[in-house]
Specification:
By secondary structure, the chain is of the alpha+beta class. The protein is built from 9 helices and 10 strands. It catalyses: S-ubiquitinyl-[E2 ubiquitin-conjugating enzyme]-L-cysteine + [acceptor protein]-L-lysine = [E2 ubiquitin-conjugating enzyme]-L-cysteine + N(6)-ubiquitinyl-[acceptor protein]-L-lysine.
Length: 232
Amino acid sequence: NNLMAAQMTNAHRRFLQVLMSNGITEGSEARKLHQHCCETDKVYYAHDKLDDFISTINSHLQPLFMQIRKGISEDDGRAHYAVVNLAETEVTKMASDYTEIELELFRKTLDLIILSENGFATSTDILNLADQLKTKKMKKKEAEQVLKVFVEDKWLSEKNGEYTLHTRCIIEMEQYILSNYQDVARKCNICRSLAIQSQVCESCGIGMHLPCVRKYFRGQTEPRCPKCNEFW
């Protein structure tokens, strides 16, 4: 009852609907949407109250096992927001949109990305998996098309022929990845979010997102690891 005490207005509902239709929304766009929804619905608006606004929505989503989560882009460190279904695994979420063979290709791509040193998998390595799938073999042309769809649907990002996990995918699958790749998956030592693309301390092994590294060491003449104090 305490969780449900804050009233969910039409502004909250409109904000939630847009987030769900977008799949993922960049932080500055979320702030603009927050202002627009409040002003349209003529409810109290304050520029620094977005987190409180989202918390009210989340309190009403809790019985539905859903939540608006905040994540950080590994490319530039910008905040993003996505609606996550807590009652389903990542496979269940994707099963309604993709065939069994497409899901198998995604899982194998996930393996390549997470087990890599830099958080990327080349298109060549992924396409070489196409004729090794257990469900059935997939032609490379088909696999190329499936990868294109994964990028369009914001599960993967592609840059110069290399693939990594989209920010949306990291937000939605963080707990799954941390649970299923315990030996290799790590959280950023600064922001505590899952780190796929990261720099790693050669001494103690902690990892940090590249944007977090830039922020943490800004202005330092001799950057040292925040955990073991060795030269970074």
